[in-house]
Structures are given as structure tokens and as C-alpha cells.
Amino acid sequence: MGELGHVLVLAGGLSYEREVSLRSGRRVSEVLRTTGIDVETRDTDSSLVPSVLADPPDAVFVTLHGGAGEDGAIRSVLELLNIPYVGAGPDACRVAFDKPTAKAVVRSVDIQTPASVTLPKETFHDLGASVVLGRIIDRLGLPLFVKPSRGGSALGASIVRTAEELPAAMVGCFAYGDTALIEQYVEGVEVAVSVVDLGDGPIALPAVEIVPDEGVYDYAARYTAGHTEFFAPARLSEAAAAACATMAVTAHRALGLRDLSRTDLIVDADDRPHFLEVNVAPGMTETSLFPMAVESAGRDLGTLCRRLLESASTR
């Protein structure tokens, strides 16, 4: 493992998830300092590159959510600067960040994922929204789940249980992105499985079960303490828990991810997991799922983050 004299945590950015990213960055900085590391936290503004060039960190921990933090852009810049960082490389990030593309990749390795349609806003404008929406319901049925093809924190996402709800769901989706992913909604237990790789290959941490008070794991339910009940480990059968772990690790490998990831799944009434999406920069806030999984596994978050940085520093 490499020696860590100076570590940079990137947080903030200009995406819709800026505030969550700042909270993640503060949490990671705090837990790293408990392990004796000299940590600097910075935003992604015009002073970043000159600062990094003047005083190169031994490694960077990226806690940027959405946009440049997960689409590979910032990681491409770090590679141009020859600065090692925790997490997947730019190419893998671009694939994972685009939900329809990620679904296609995991489907190619026999991972089950809900049937879906991906359409840009222009399609509805050019062809007529009512006709296209009607065909979507004919093909996929109801209920549906609508979300932007890129982005996170459930921004612009909603469940559609009737045909009358679909137009409003599309409008809400397009407020956060130009392309919508409309997929069959699978009823079941919602879980998140975090994956870490400390050098011996990726392993799954215990699944975290998500039970939002209002029935929908939206932005408020994710980041407001007390709005969601979590169970870590998830209340799954042994077979379902093992299947979720295998699916998360398989997705991590198939997408070419590195160091850490979080896969979101639904486990149906027959104990079968269904892949929803993957996150290359899992949230690290007090209500985030990755830290819960780390604690459930009996690990210390600061020590784990330090080991990931040490591993990255040798690349």
C-alpha cells in the first residue's frame, strides 16, 4: 500500500446533487481524519487544477454526485494530471452513469432487469406525446417507473400506476434530463448492495433494505433523517441475500468498475432480484446506504476509505 501524506476529497460540483455531495465530502473528510490523514476538501472550480498542479495530492477521493462526478469527466481530468483517485475510470463511469446503457450491459451477462423504453424529449415533441405514451403503456403495461436516463438521488423519478399519471411523470422527469427511462415497476423489497475491492477482487457487503415511510424512496426520503427505515442486513432469505450479492458483484465486473460501487435492486415475491441501476460514487452522508453496509459488515468507514486511497495511490 502507498503512503498517504496528503489526500484531496472532491465535493460539491454544479449538479442538482450538489448539497448531497457536500455532505458526502464532509463525512469522508471527517472519517479519514480519524485515521490520521491530512485531508483537504475542495470544490470543482477554476482554482482546482492550478492547486493540484502546485501541490499534487497522493490520491483523491471523489464524492461528487451526478454530472461530472459520475460521468467520467472529472476523472478524465485527474488522469490528465496524473493524479490517482478512488473509483472507476472514465470509460466505465460513462457506461454506468447512463442507465439504459448499464441495463444493456448487465442484461448481456444474464442479469435480470425490468423491461424498459428509453426516449428523448424531442421524440414526444416530434411524434406527439399522447400517441407515444399510449404505445408505451401497451408495450410495458402498468405500473411503470419513470426516471431520467442519467442522474441520481431519485430526482425526476416517479411511480406511474395509471395512464393518467404518465404525462405528469414525463414532465417531472424532463425537468432533470432530456432523456427518460420508462421501465416496468417491480413490486418487492428494495435493497442496495455495496461492493468494495481492496485488492483481492470485489466483494459484496451486506444488503441494506429500504423502507420509506411514504412508500417511495424519493429525494426527501433519502436525505431526511427519520423519513425512511433501514435494515442492515436486509430482511431477506439466505438464498435471496446470496443472489443479490452475486448480482451486485457480477454487475460491478461487467461494467468494468473499480474500488467501490453500489447496485440498487428489487427483490420480488419469488426472491428473485432485479437490477435497477448502479452508482459509481455512492453517497457517504449520515443517511446513505454505503456507510450502513460498511457498519453492518463490522468494518470502520474511515479505515475502509483509507485503504481504498492507499490502493489508489499505488496505481
UniProtKB/TrEMBL annotation:
Record carries keyword Hydrolase: no
Keyword field: ATP-binding, Cell shape, Cell wall biogenesis/degradation, Cytoplasm, Ligase, Nucleotide-binding, Peptidoglycan synthesis
Superkingdom of this protein's organism: Bacteria
Signal peptide segment: none
Segments forming domain ATP-grasp: 103-310
E.C. number(s) listed in UniProt: 6.3.2.4
Primary location: cytoplasm
Family in the record: Belongs to the D-alanine--D-alanine ligase family.
Function noted in UniProt: Cell wall formation.
Protein name from the UniProt record: D-alanine--D-alanine ligase
Organism: Nonomuraea longicatena
